[in-house]
């Protein structure tokens, strides 16, 4: 089944509060805004929820597994699932967009992830430059394409 794909770019910034290097793993629930700061000129647009896990014996590498839930804009209520390896002292890290829900269902692509501002060892602003494509919904979506596992009338 061929599907048209739509490109979209979202620019979001997350405030990450973690005790990562001390503890090895941290669960996060961070504010996502649409600007690079947390000032009056950037609106809250969602939350980033998930885990950062220190995952290398030799260097400061974490494995990220987060879901960004959007709470404003055209994708309000949709989520974007981001996963990958973050070598935290690199200028730019590339992580994967591995999926999404709602208006972002089936999203795939990548995120260019940078540390925009460091306030302390556990408090910083991350800039997530999201490049993802989303399959267009089928015009005649009548569930004929749904694969039913274990159906008796196959
Ligand atoms: C986002 O969607 C929720 C639930 O439908 C709604 O209550 C809220 O007002 C929306 N927020 C914005 C900023 O549109």
Structure, described:
The longest helix has 4 residues. Strands 1-2-3-4-5-6-7-8 form an 8-stranded antiparallel beta barrel. It starts with a strand and ends in a 19-residue tail after the last strand. The chain is globular and about 45 Å long. It contains 1 helix and 8 strands, in the order E-H-E-E-E-E-E-E-E. It has a single domain, classed as AOC barrel-like (Beta Barrel). The protein is mainly beta. Helix content is about 5%, strand content about 55%.
- For the record, the CATH class is Mainly Beta
Low-confidence stretches: none
Q: What's the arrangement of strands in the largest beta sheet?
A: 1-2-3-4-5-6-7-8
CATH topology: AOC barrel-like
CATH architecture descriptor name: Beta Barrel
The number of distinct helices, counting runs of at least 4 residues, comes to 1
> What level of helicity do the residues show?
under 10%
Number of domains: 1
Shape: globular
In N-to-C order, the SSE pattern is EHEEEEEEE
Subunit organisation of the chains: single chain
């Amino acid at each position: 089944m061929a599907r048209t794909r739509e490109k979209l770019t979202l620019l979001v910034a997350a405030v990450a509060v973690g005790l990562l290097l001390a503890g090895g793993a941290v669960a996060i629930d961070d504010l996502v805004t649409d600007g690079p700061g947390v000032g009056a000129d950037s609106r809250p647009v969602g939350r980033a929820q998930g885990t950062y896990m220190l995952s290398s014996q030799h260097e400061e590498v974490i494995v990220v597994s987060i879901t960004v839930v959007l709470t404003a804009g055209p994708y309000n209520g949709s989520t974007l699932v981001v996963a990958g390896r973050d070598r935290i002292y690199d200028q730019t890290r590339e992580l994967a967009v591995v999926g999404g829900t709602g208006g972002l269902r089936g999203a795939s692509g990548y995120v260019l992830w940078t540390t925009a501002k460091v306030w302390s060892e556990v408090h910083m602003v991350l800039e997530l430059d999201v490049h993802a494509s989303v399959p267009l919904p089928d015009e005649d979506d009548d569930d004929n394409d749904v694969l039913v596992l274990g159906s008796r009338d196959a």
